[in-house]
Write a structure and sequence with these properties.
Elements: E1 9-11, H1 12-19, H2 23-35, H3 37-40, E2 43-45, E3 51-54, H4 55-66
Antiparallel strand pairs: 1-3, 2-3
Helix pairs in contact: 1-2
């Protein structure tokens, strides 16, 4: 179980505003995060529509994507 009191969690829709990216891009990144063991705990599904994502881990994931860390992995 993930402790939601530790960390800054936002819904996917809030991430679109925070990072100025589209909803489909957020969805695609979240699905990739779930497949990577070190980011799996950053995503919490409370229901099929309500998904909370740790903002700090999401920012780190985007940074690592930008650096090309996951380019060759089969995470897409």
């Amino acid at each position: 179980m993930v402790d939601l009191s530790k960390g800054n969690y936002k819904q996917k829709g809030e991430l679109t505003d925070l990072f100025n990216i589209s909803r489909s891009t957020v969805q695609r990144y979240v699905e990739r995060m779930v497949k990577i063991p070190k980011y799996k705990e950053a995503v919490t599904r409370l229901s099929h529509k309500l998904v909370l994502v740790n903002v700090d881990m999401f920012a780190k994931f985007i940074s690592e994507l930008d650096k090309g860390y996951y380019r060759n992995e089969k995470t897409a």
